Fold this sequence. Notes:
Layout: E1 14-17, E2 27-31, E3 37-41, H1 45-58
Antiparallel strand pairs: 1-2, 2-3
Domain PH: 1-59
GO molecular function: phospholipid binding
InterPro entries: PH-like_dom_sf (IPR011993), PH_9 (IPR041681), PH_dom-spectrin-type (IPR001605), PH_domain (IPR001849)
Amino acid sequence: DSPCSPPLSVVDARCEAAADYWKKEHTFRLWLSDEAEYLFSAPSSKLMDEWIQKIRNNA
């Protein structure tokens, strides 16, 4: 068994495309209410937009 990280709460989180991030395509930022920031990279622009919208719908 490998240790797992606790789940991230997206309550009051902000999420948007990371237009200024050039290392990977289709990257977006997630800022949590505790001010932690995460970068995620999706396989396509379409999926990135879908993921952002789903996170926003649950924030």
